[in-house]
Amino acid sequence: MNKRGQTRIIELLLATVILATAVVFSLYFARPMRSIYVRETSTLRRLAYNVLNNYAMSGVFENIILHGNLTGRPWQNEMATFMSMTLPPEILYYLEVYHADLRNGTVTLRLLGTITNISNNQFTSFIESESITYTYVSTGEPDKTRGIILVFHLVLGFSG
Amino acid sequence: MLIITALMIAIILMGIIVSVHESQMLFLKTRSLVVREVVGAITADFQRALAVTLAVATRGYYNYSRFKDLCGKFGGFGYTAIEKHNFTVARFMALTYLQYWRETIVRAYANYGVQVDFEIERLNISELIGRRRYVYNLSAGYWYYPSSASVAYARLKLNLTSAGFYGWESPVFAGIYLTVQPNPVSVTDDNVTIRINVKIDAGDPYPYLLTKGWIEVYYPEEHNGYWTGAWNKGEIEDVTYEGYGNYTVTVSPAVRVLTDPLSGQQYVPLLVVVSDHRGILVEALTYDKIVFKIRKNTPDTLEYYLEYSIGPYSLDRPQNTPFEIYTIDFSSDLKLFWLDMELPKDPSLAIPPLPFMPIKQLRVNISYDGTINTLRERPLQVENWTRVRWYDRDLWIPYGMPDPTIDIRPYIQLGDKYFATRFVFQVPFPQLDIREQWVVFWWNDSLDATPRVWRTNINYTYDPSHGIKDIIVNSSPGIRIELIDTEHTAMRDYVNYNGVAAIGLRSLSDEAFGPWNIHSFGDVWCGGYHWLGRFRPYGKWTVLANYTGRYSWIQAPIRIFAVLNTSLVASVYSCDPYYGNPTSGYYSTLSILQVINGTNYVPLIVHIHWQHSRSGYSYWLYSMMGAGYPEKFAYMTGWDYGGIREDTVRIRSYNNPSPVDRGSSRGCYHAGFNSPGLWAAHWNSTVGRGVVSNENFVNLLEWSNTNGYSPAFYVTRCGGPTGLQNSLEIKFADSNVNIDPYAINSLLDYWLVLTMFSPHNLNDGWQDLYYYAPMFWQRYAPEIVKP
């Protein structure tokens, strides 16, 4: 009787050890299975925000887009050149620029233009991509453009 | 068996935990990135939106027309040029714009389920600005001091419902702080160097003033060694960034250093305007007040002679002089005026310009007992004046009261016209031994400031349907001044002048004392009688009693003007062909009547220009009726005449004016006296009135005397509805007179001051006028001195 009781206790201890080991192992191996994919797209997202933030802080939107719209300068070409210089060469981009038209109590988003380095809009060439939205209230010179609200939709991706 | 069971459970557990953990990690990593970036982008954009609204408000406030490219775009939100100095409207514009911005954000970030709002809270900026100031309602500006700020503040609230992210709140600041050190770093013969500090938003030092922002420094314009009140843009020779938002700025030309008499602070009068890269602007000055003193020059003892005695006699002015109140104009071109004269200024006193700011910001403190202990804010009135070429002379004329929201313009020169704004204040000298009073002009630093509304006892009522065109002084002594002219021809219960301009004097209960006729020439025989005073000014009194623009409901608190400017004359006698039928070719009249609150005097400034040579019989400079109320009268002689010395007080009773020098003293007499001088008065035991003139007036009379035209002081016994008149009259000529415009025109600039008094007794009632008469003489005019 005593021997049988001791065996049960040993079994219980062993079962506990097995369960604990299972939990520890499962936690140890519990990492995102598709971690490579997450890292890459989040980088694109971060890059997209960084690019637009930097443009905002350095007055690119006023100097190229708004000034171009005021003067009739080919701002889309300038912006495309600027983006190509700023972004890594393997990155594909597609940028839509909208002007938020504030009238009669409503906001209308009016497309000012699109800029992309994807030839003939071959979007199938994206293998991984991220899109972001960004708004920008113009604060820089010239006075005429202060207060204009721009909305950007930017898609960044890796080419196939 | 148990071990096998445990193993099975362990395997299942491992699978579940791994799966759940992987999902959680993936979700968190993805979501945190979205939330972080979107929240960051929206917050930054909200700050930019706030900054834009503040840029519009501050640029518009500073100079709307200069920044019209920006401000004009916000006209659709209610922020127009007319409202440029209305920060409430600017705030409304900002809120409208931020609503649009919210809608844009909601639409742009629709796939994130963005909910965005902002809450307006109070922000304490006292530490940053160095005095107790708050941003109460989205935005505020505190300018024109050495430490100034423009700030917008709100708390942003954000939810990203699609990302399961709720309750984000962030305080968002947009603003600029400018501190100018009043004391210059150095002053050379060519330039001046000052130190400034610039911070933005939550008080972060701003190192980009030169690369992204800008600075302008203005110095006082100088002409013939005097500051004109205008600001000129200085040339910035050098700017050095010293770190932590500090800059030293060297500007040419050099500007002299002044000392604030109250604080002892040295300062170089400069105005500094700074803008950051977002267009937010702030204006600061190196000083926050302008201080000087007004010194009265009236004597404590007055001398006079009496008839039939040797004299001179002395009359000590009483210790209490409650009616010695000077109504002084401080002009935006830094000159000071009293009546129609520019006041002398201590050469060592340099008055710096008023800030470039709207009129509504300005305030004045004046002492009461001559010490700074009684410096209190007092009423201030703002008027538009112009100096015009009126025939052969330059004259100052008031032409209106401005819109208090417009900027102070030191002066405007347009051809031969010169415009300036005058800030009118009253300086009391309630006791004989108070000889100087402090005057401190200062300004409200809040861009939300509104003009101060002061209680006043004067008001103007125009009601043609009841025959009222009155300026009422509703105090003690009170009076109604009825303006008789082309639009109000008949004095109530009295005469119908049919377009001739005069001043009707009435009691507060509307009893007519009769007209105060301001000029008349010649005579006429008609209706079987011989009438004197045929040609009198014909025209309309233009009354200036209210501000214009948004604040037109504010009445003039200190004085109401009535201006008569006419080249026509007409007759008041119905039998005369010139009755209601004006003609030119005689004289032009420019008269400015001032009805002043809190005083017992009503000045009338008179300018006459004869257009052609004329001859006629008799020429009045004024006649003031009495409706039979006065019992006694007196006047002071203007020069030695016969056995009577200059400054002799000649006192008579209307019952028996004997002895007289001219005319008769019996019945309905018209009795004359020689050598009229600086004042004349009539009174009974309770009330008295008189006219005090200035030295120009006596010079004119003396000239007449020298040329043999018999100038005289007259009284008339009968006339008017009551039958008794008991008038006061001054004649330039009590004889035939030939008017030679070239000889006389230059003398016809003078002022007459209607003075009301309460006689201390019937016999010596004139003394109560005489106590205050020197106030109105040029030789005793107050002066501006350095504290």
What does this structure look like?
The complex is a heterodimer of chains A (160) and B (787). By secondary structure, chain A is α+β, with helices and mostly antiparallel strands. Chain A has helices at 2-29, 35-57, 60-71, 75-86, and strands at residues 91-103, 106-116, 126-137, 149-159. Chain A has a 4-stranded antiparallel β-sheet with strand order 2-1-4-3. In chain A, a hairpin with a 2-residue loop joins strand 1 and strand 2 (106-116). Chain A starts with a helix and ends with a strand. By secondary structure, chain B is mainly β. Among the domains of chain B are: 293-309 and 321-451, no CATH class; 453-557 and 569-586, no CATH class; 613-617 and 625-780, no CATH class. In chain B, the strands form 8 sheets. In chain B, strands 31, 32, 33, 34, 35, 36, 37, 40, 43, 46, 47, 50 and 51 form a 13-stranded antiparallel β-sheet that branches. Chain B has an 11-stranded mixed β-sheet with strand order 20-19-45-44-48-49-52-42-41-39-38. In chain B, helix 1 (2-63) packs antiparallel against helix 3. Chain B is elongated, with a radius of gyration of 36 Å. Classes of the chains: A alpha+beta (160), B mainly beta (787).
